[in-house]
């Protein structure tokens, strides 16, 4: 299978490495020329608990892709998706499948602007990954992924992709309940990430204070109400449980939104709290705490560009 990884950052490199280990023909596509040059010069350096690998995976700019591939895996930030897919139009043929394992809601719709809906797959990853230098990625945690056709597509291709990732070291399943998985993760992120980013603290700090614990509970309950009103039948308790595990077992973990704010980068708040807010409005619901956190992070993001 010929696979283009669109966005060869922290997650793109991690997943590209798994497809490569499983024997797929992988191309890492990115716009960061220095990162591309480093990968092509010495290989992709991937550090995991098992050790450090140097993987000879070619890296290209989008304009260097001139023929259709079998699969495009989108791993840009959510607000970069549309432009990134537009930049590799030559690689998206009539049989090309698109997959997003990005965070947030609405990735299915963004991908369906660039391929027929039956060729769009979505999912979620619980693998952690960090870009630690040009051509260098570190992933020290455990995790896996779940994916499935986003709309009415056949599951066969999703199963093949999941099997490849599992063979390459990332346990992955094709899960028909994929929208429940994606909503649950988005709601968890909506509850935890903005509070970490606004306080500049990790989940352990949030656990120590009634104010944060109350807000986390409320955002989860608001999000679950919106999901159910949108036809995605999930329960709140498993997400409450996950927030508790995050605040206790992963007390010192730096949420990606906290890392973004500290580094002066734009956050993915639009695809997380913003998307839940949009769905709430469509369903005629009010989600005041989710909305306030969304507005606070929008202000934070505005500081970057003004
Ligand atoms: P990242 O910023 O490390 O990587 C994004 C890459 O996309 C960058 O290398 C960037 O240069 C590239 N890019 C930007 N515009 C592009 C374009 N037009 N064409 C090609 N490439 C382009 O981000 P990440 O941490 O890998 O996150 C990617 C997605 O995965 C996000 O939605 C994130 O929420 C999700 N995610 C991340 C983690 C994690 O631990 N890092 C875990 C789960 C999910």
TrEMBL record:
Gene3D superfamilies: N-(1-d-carboxylethyl)-l-norvaline Dehydrogenase, domain 2, NAD(P)-binding Rossmann-like Domain
Enzyme Commission identifier(s): 1.1.1.169
Ketopantoate reductase N-terminal domain sequence ranges: 3-143
Catalytic activity: (R)-pantoate + NADP(+) = 2-dehydropantoate + NADPH + H(+)
Gene Ontology CC: cytoplasm
Protein's GO biological process: pantothenate biosynthetic process
An MF annotation (GO) of this entry: 2-dehydropantoate 2-reductase activity
InterPro entries, per the entry: 6-PGluconate_DH-like_C_sf (IPR008927), 6PGD_dom2 (IPR013328), ApbA (IPR003710), KPA_reductase (IPR013752), KPR-Related (IPR051402), KPR_N (IPR013332), NAD(P)-bd_dom_sf (IPR036291)
Residues covered by the Ketopantoate reductase C-terminal domain: 178-299
Keywords: NADP, Oxidoreductase, Pantothenate biosynthesis
Pathway field: Cofactor biosynthesis; (R)-pantothenate biosynthesis; (R)-pantoate from 3-methyl-2-oxobutanoate: step 2/2
Listed Pfam families: ApbA, ApbA_C
Family: Belongs to the ketopantoate reductase family.
Function: Catalyzes the NADPH-dependent reduction of ketopantoate into pantoic acid.
Protein name, entry field: 2-dehydropantoate 2-reductase
Source organism per UniProt: Croceibacterium xixiisoli
């Amino acid at each position: 299978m010929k696979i283009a990884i669109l966005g060869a950052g922290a997650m793109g490199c991690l997943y590209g490495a798994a497809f490569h280990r499983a024997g797929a023909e992988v191309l890492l596509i990115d716009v960061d020329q220095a990162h591309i040059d480093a990968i092509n010069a010495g290989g992709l350096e991937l550090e995991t608990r098992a050790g450090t690998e140097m993987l000879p995976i070619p890296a290209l700019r989008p304009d260097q892709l001139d023929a259709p591939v079998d699969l495009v895996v989108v791993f840009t930030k959510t607000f970069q998706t549309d432009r990134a897919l537009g930049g590799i139009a030559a690689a998206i043929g009539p049989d090309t499948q698109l997959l997003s394992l990005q965070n947030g809601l609405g990735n299915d719709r963004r991908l369906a602007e660039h391929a027929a809906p039956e060729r769009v797959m979505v999912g979620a990853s619980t693998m952690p990954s960090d870009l630690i230098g040009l051509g260098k990625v570190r992933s020290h945690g455990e995790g896996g992924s779940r994916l499935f056709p986003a709309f009415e597509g056949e599951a066969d291709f999703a199963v093949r992709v999941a099997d490849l990732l599992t063979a390459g070291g990332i346990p992955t399943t094709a899960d028909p309940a994929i929208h429940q998985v994606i909503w649950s993760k988005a709601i968890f992120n909506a509850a935890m990430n903005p509070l970490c980013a606004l306080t500049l603290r990790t989940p352990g700090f949030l656990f120590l204070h009634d104010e944060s614990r109350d807000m986390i509970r409320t955002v989860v309950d608001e999000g679950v109400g919106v999901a159910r009103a949108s036809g995605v039948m999930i329960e709140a308790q498993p997400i409450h449980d996950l927030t508790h595990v995050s605040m206790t077992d992963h007390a010192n973990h730096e949420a990606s939104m906290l890392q973004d704010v500290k580094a002066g980068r734009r956050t993915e708040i639009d695809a997380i709290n913003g998307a839940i807010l949009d769905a709430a409005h469509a369903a005629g619901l009010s989600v005041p705490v989710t909305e306030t956190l969304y507005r606070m992070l929008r202000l934070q993001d505005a500081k970057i560009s003004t």
